[in-house]
Design goal:
The protein is of the alpha+beta class. It has three domains: 2-69, Uridine Diphospho-n-acetylenolpyruvylglucosamine Reductase, domain 2 (2-Layer Sandwich), CATH 3.30.43.10; 74-186, Uridine Diphospho-n-acetylenolpyruvylglucosamine Reductase, domain 3 (2-Layer Sandwich); 233-337, Alpha-Beta Complex (Uridine Diphospho-n-acetylenolpyruvylglucosamine Reductase, domain 1). 27% of the residues lie in helices and 27% in strands. The protein starts with a strand and ends with a strand.
Length: 338
C-alpha cells in the first residue's frame, strides 16, 4: 500500500486536469483495504475511488482521500469445453484483460478493446462499445464496505445494469469498494459484428472476422475516431446518448430523415448525441483551451492547460445548443468532482 499527501492528479485523469488531492492511496490487496477501513480518519473522510480517471472531470482540488486499486490477477473459477469463468482483480487495466481473453481464445469482450479504465470501473460503469455491453459477461461483483468492512458479493441481477449504469453509481451504494469481478466467457466462437463501423471494416478489409481480427478492427476504429489521451486530454464520450420516447424520435425523424436512431427493446429510442452536436455545427468548436473534438463531436478535449471548469462551461454550451435546436437534453457521462 502506498499513501501520498498533497498529490497532483494530473496523471490520474485522462483530461489532464492539474487538480490536487489531500491524500492519494494505492492499495494492493483486500487485506490492505481491511487495514484502511479500521482507520477512523479513513471512515469519516471524504473519499473518491478512481480507476484510470478516464471518466472524471475535476472542477477543483479534492479535499479528502483518493483511492486507487492495485488488486490485479486472474483466477480460473470453472471451465468446461464451452465456457470459462474468471475472477479478475478490480485494479487490472481493462484492456490488459481483453488482451488476455483474446490470447486465450475466450470470446465476449473483444468489442470492448482499448476502452480506458480498470476492470472494477468497467463493472461500475457498464462500459459498452460496438454493440456490446460488459454486463452480459459479468456473473458477480465482489465488494468490501468502506465503513463496516463487510464483504458482499452482488449477483449480476443485484447490479441493476442498464445503459452506462449500475447500482454502484447510486448514492446508497457509494461505500462499496469493488475488489474483484467474475466473468463468464465463451470458448466457442461467438462474435458480435452488427455494429455499422465493424460491418464497414470487414467489408473494406480482406480479413475474416476472428477473435483477433475483431480486436484489431476495434482498436483501429477507436484510434481513428477518438483522440489519444497522451496527446489531447479527453474522457471519451463526454455525453451519454439520450434515450427518448418513440414519439420524440418520430418527430425528429420527420424533420431529419437521416438522423441515426437505435430502437431499444422497451420501445424507447436511443439517439446519437454525437450526431445532434455535429448538426449544431459544433464539431471542432473551441472555447479558449477547451474544445469539441474535430473528428467526433461527442468528445470534448483539453487543448492544453484547460481547467475542469472551462471544460464544464463548454459542456453547458453544447447542452444548450442541442436543447435549443432539437428540444432534447443530453447529459454528461463524465462524473464531475468538486
Ligand atoms: N456521428 C456524427 N457526428 C459525430 C459523431 C457521431 O454524425 O461527430 C454519428 C455517426 O455517424 C453515427 C452515430 O452518430 O451514425 C453514432 O456515432 P458512433 O458510432 O461514433 O458512436 P457514438 O454513439 O458516438 C458510442 C459510445 C462510445 C462507443 C461507440 C461505439 C456512448 C456515449 N458512446 O458512441 O463509447 O465507443 O458508441 O460503440 O454511448 C465512451 O463511452 O467513452 C465511448 C467512446
Amino acid at each position: 500500500m502506498k499513501i501520498e499527501k498533497d498529490f497532483s492528479l494530473k496523471h490520474h485523469n485522462t483530461f489532464g486536469i492539474d487538480a490536487q488531492a489531500d491524500w492519494f492511496v494505492t492499495y494492493d490487496s483486500v487485506d490492505d483495504l481491511r487495514i484502511l477501513v479500521r482507520d477512523e480518519y479513513f471512515q469519516e473522510c471524504r473519499y473518491l475511488h478512481i480507476g484510470e480517471g478516464s471518466n472524471l472531470l475535476f472542477l477543483a482540488n479534492f479535499h479528502g482521500i483518493v483511492l486507487r486499486s492495485g488488486i490485479t490477477g486472474i483466477e480460473v473459477l470453472r471451465e468446461s469445453a464451452e465456457e470459462i469463468e474468471l475472477r479478475v482483480g478490480a485494479g487490472m487495466i481493462w484492456d490488459d484483460f481483453v488482451a488476455y481473453c483474446t490470447e486465450h481464445g475466450y470470446y465476449g469482450v473483444e468489442n470492448l478493446s482499448l476502452i480506458p479504465g480498470q476492470v472494477g470501473s468497467s463493472a461500475i460503469q457498464n462500459i459498452g462499445a460496438y454493440g456490446v455491453e460488459v454486463e452480459r459477461f459479468i456473473t458477480s461483483v465482489h465488494t468490501l464496505h468502506r465503513r463496516s468492512g463487510q464483504e458482499r458479493c452482488f449477483s449480476r441481477g443485484e447490479c441493476a445494469y442498464a445503459y452506462r449504469h449500475s447500482t454502484f453509481k447510486e448514492a446508497e451504494q457509494a461505500d462499496y469498494i469493488v475488489t474483484h469481478v467474475d466473468f463468464r466467457l465463451s470458448k466457442v466462437e461467438h462474435l458480435a459484428l452488427d455494429y455499422a463501423d465493424l460491418k464497414r471494416y470487414f467489408a473494406e478489409h480482406d480479413t475474416k472476422p476472428t477473435l483477433t481480427s475483431v480486436r484489431q478492427a476495434v482498436i483501429e476504429i477507436r484510434q481513428r475516431k477518438l483522440p489519444d489521451t497522451q496527446i489531447l486530454g479527453n474522457a471519451g464520450s463526454y455525453f451519454m446518448n439520450p434515450i427518448v420516447p418513440a414519439q420524440v424520435a418520430d418527430r425528429l425523424r420527420q424533420a431529419y430523415p437521416q438522423m441515426p436512431v437505435y430502437p431499444l427493446e422497451d420501445g424507447r429510442v436511443k439517439l446519437a448525441a454525437g450526431w445532434l452536436i455535429d448538426q449544431c455545427g459544433l464539431k471542432g468548436y473551441r472555447m479558449g483551451r477547451a474544445g469539441v473534438y474535430e473528428h467526433q463531436a461527442l468528445v470534448l478535449v483539453n487543448h492544453g492547460g484547460a481547467t475542469g471548469q472551462e471544460i464544464a462551461t463548454l459542456a453547458e454550451y453544447v447542452q444548450q445548443a442541442v436543447l435549443e435546436r432539437f428540444a432534447v437534453e443530453v447529459y454528461p457521462e463524465v462524473k464531475y468532482i468538486s
